[in-house]
Automatic annotation (TrEMBL):
UniProt cross-references to PROSITE patterns, sorted A to Z: OSBP, PH_DOMAIN
Gene3D superfamilies recorded: 1.10.287.2720, 2.40.160.120, 6.10.140.1150, Pleckstrin-homology domain (PH domain)/Phosphotyrosine-binding domain (PTB)
Protein name: Oxysterol-binding protein
GO cellular component, one term: membrane
Length: 699
């Protein structure tokens, strides 16, 4: 191929903190699949200073600038390189990726079969891949040489009839069995010696075989959908199609030598059968439920995610996963291993952003629009630290469509009105609002209550809606977030697409805001979380706005978790407050009057949320829905957690396919679609407006 020529030239290579970047002469040897470098061009005839095998490597352009990229070899060695400009970087990256793909595909053809099995791996490449040509007899069914049910070579494949789908499914089941045997054979190999279970070629073989089976599952799913659409008019009422088992996931291949079975329904634990059966009861009613805060108890759960043991034990599984991913790949539909999960749903994580409700409810105490905007910025920046559970980057559960989470917070009025106000010394004293009575004839409580509800309103794309309100303070916040994740090489980026609106009904003000991007860095070593991107907060009525920048760490030097921002009056373009610091440590606020305030987020008091006991929760509430996964993770039983997680995901897929088959739209419970967003069905601004209208009519 014209794109497989050897290329060479100077690139900057990052060595270490002392010597930094140095120019080196690099040579891409396409025939050998090697990237070599020399001190300079004149020493090219000498032995290379360094060499990387490109088979199985990941080539990653940096997301921080347009010149830098990394070459991550399958051996774990990494080159950090920098071209002179974006065009030169693209030239090197594209040639390296082509060479890497070519030699990675060659592994499948050249790797000898295992003695205990008679497998031969067909070429993994497409017909357009460099150096790879497809034989006429090569097709999806002949991926494994199983020796039976072969399609005759050269014959035209007839249109699929229902009985043919049954035959295909049988062949697929046999291929899946062969693939599982292959995985077991590899994992039963010793961990040391000439041929080990961690051999890089065998890891690549596991990855490619799994990717191929997933692709065949997708193709078969398409055939089933086509057949269902053709037969829709003739199917009896209530008839459903028996769908193929879900994709093979990495979680099914955790421990070397462990036989992973797909047990029949009768052999499943009672808890798994419960997870699969609660769908019917949940679908009986989608009417909103009024949660009584008096039924909620102070949360005693404290699952900090600082344990790295499971991640370290499963390093080969992470390598296995990375070998299947491509740069920029959307991870929404990728089944991730269970051991990287933290013990809470994404919906509960949104609730944990409200762990400083005292700072939230004093926003409306501000006596001027400027003061209220500054108070909101202060609250906003203090919310992210407690939203993370520990220093290790783990992933919350992906919420099931229709999943909900409810909680509340209570704060003594005496403490909020005094301590929360004194917590903001740069501002003038606040006017205390008169809270409304709960019910006529009853004594009003001596505490404020903030209620929270979240719901997963969509599965594809994954969209969550959440809403919080404090009736006594006449304020509420409504938001919807679409989490979109991408593979970035040695990190994973999550974009939080959506918008939130804070409503201060006492002042008739609305504050729109967005959320920063999140990154899981160093996923092969000790994963950690970083926030990045620019966030804007605006109040159209008052003309005040805030611009906040979450800075990602530069490639060389610089501080972690840095954040800067400013609050300004748009009409006069006057900056009234500046902020700098770290979003998980200390923040410094400088006000227009010259005063400065420091907030140590690690020392801020946290108000524990109140949650109903599991026995009082509905079957689709987060903690009850995921309780068996959470308990297994606490016990350290990854296999059991994986089984429960798989049962929930399988049920969700089956329900989604049934809705598609019957053309039944999903009905949300608490949130309504309005334009491009989602709004709580009974927001406080509607309730207050209705009460005011009623009082006006009475008067």
């Amino acid at each position: 191929s014209d794109h497989m020529e050897n290329i060479y030239g100077y690139l900057m290579k990052y060595t270490n903190l002392v010597t930094g970047w140095q120019y080196r002469f690099f040579v891409l040897n396409n025939d050998a699949g090697l990237l070599e470098y020399f001190v300079n061009e004149q020493s090219r005839h000498l032995k290379p200073r360094g060499t990387l095998q490109l088979a199985g490597a990941v080539i990653s352009p940096s997301d921080e600038d347009s010149h830098t990229f990394t070459v991550n070899a399958a051996s774990g060695e990494q080159y950090k390189l920098r071209a002179t400009d974006a065009k030169e970087r693209q030239h090197w990256v594209s040639r390296l990726q082509i060479c890497t793909q070519h030699h990675t595909e060659a592994i499948g053809k050249n790797n000898p079969p295992l003695k205990s099995r008679s497998f031969s791996l067909a070429s993994q490449g497409s017909a357009n891949s460099p150096g790879v040509q497809r034989r006429p007899s090569q097709n999806a069914i002949s991926f494994f040489n199983v020796g039976h049910h072969r399609l005759p070579t050269g014959k035209r494949v007839p249109i699929m009839q229902p009985d043919h789908l049954v035959d295909v499914r049988e062949m697929m089941s046999q291929a899946e069995g062969q693939q599982r045997d292959l995985i077991r054979s590899i994992e039963c190999l010793p961990v040391s010696g000439h041929l080990t279970s961690l051999d890089q070629d065998l890891l690549m073989l596991k990855a490619t075989s799994m990717a191929t089976m997933n692709c065949l599952n997708d193709c078969f799913h398409i055939l089933q959908l086509q057949h269902a659409s053709q037969q829709k008019g003739s199917l009896p009422a209530g008839t459903t199609i028996s769908w193929l088992e879900p994709k093979i996931s990495l979680a099914n291949h955790f421990k070397n030598g462990a036989a992973q079975n797909f047990p029949a329904e009768i052999n499943k634990p009672a808890s798994v059968r419960e997870e699969q059966s609660i769908a019917e009861s949940c679908q009986l009613t989608r009417e909103p439920e009024e949660i009584n805060p008096d039924e909620e108890l102070e949360d005693i759960c404290d699952d900090k995610e600082d344990d790295l043991g499971a991640v370290e034990d499963q390093r080969s599984v992470i390598l296995h996963l990375l070998s299947q991913l491509k740069l920029g790949m959307d991870l929404t539909r990728v089944v991730l291993p269970t051991f990287i999960l933290e013990k809470r749903s994404l919906l509960e994580m949104y609730a944990d952003f409200m762990s400083h409700p005292d700072l939230f409810i004093v926003i409306t105490n501000g006596t001027t629009p400027e003061e209220r905007m500054i108070r909101f910025v202060e609250y906003y920046l203090t919310s992210f630290h407690e939203g993370r559970k520990g220093a290790i980057a783990k992933k919350p559960y992906n919420p099931i469509i229709g999943e909900t989470f409810h909680c509340s917070w209570r704060m003594l009025k005496s403490e909020v009105d005094t301590e929360a106000g004194s917590n903001l010394p740069a501002h003038s004293p606040s006017d205390q609002l008169t809270p409304s009575k709960d019910m006529e004839g009853q004594t009003e409580p001596d505490y404020y209550t903030v209620k929270f509800v979240a719901e997963q309103v969509s599965h594809h794309p994954p969209v969550s809606g959440f809403y919080a309100e404090c009736v006594e303070r006449k304020m509420c916040v409504n938001a919807h977030v679409w989490t979109k994740s991408k593979f970035l090489g040695m990190s994973i980026g999550v974009t939080m697409i959506g918008e939130g609106v804070l409503s201060l009904l006492e002042h008739g003000e609305e504050y729109t805001f967005s959320l920063p991007c999140a990154y899981a860095r160093s996923i092969l070593t000790v994963p950690w979380v970083e926030l990045g991107g620019k966030v804007n907060i605006n109040c159209a009525k008052t003309g005040y706005s805030a611009s906040i920048n979450f800075h990602t760490k530069p490639f060389y030097g610089g501080k972690l978790h840095r954040v800067t921002g400013e609050v300004k009056q748009n009409v006069t373009n006057t900056v009234v407050c500046r902020v700098q610091g770290e979003w998980n440590s200390v923040l410094e606020f400088t006000y227009s009057n010259g005063e400065t305030k420091y907030v140590d987020l690690t020392k801020l008091s946290v108000t524990r949320k109140r949650v109903r006991p599991l026995e009082k929760q509905g079957p689709f509430e987060s903690r009850r829905l995921w309780q068996h996964v959470t308990e297994s993770l606490r016990d350290g039983d990854i296999d059991k957690a994986t089984e429960h997680k798989r049962a929930l995901e399988e049920r969700q897929r089956n329900e989604e396919r049934l809705r598609a088959e019957t053309e039944t739209p999903w009905c949300t419970k608490y949130f309504l679609k309005e334009g491009d967003g989602w709004v709580y069905h009974k927001p406080l601004w509607k309730t207050v407006s209705a009460v005011q209208t009623q009082q006006t009519e009475t008067n």
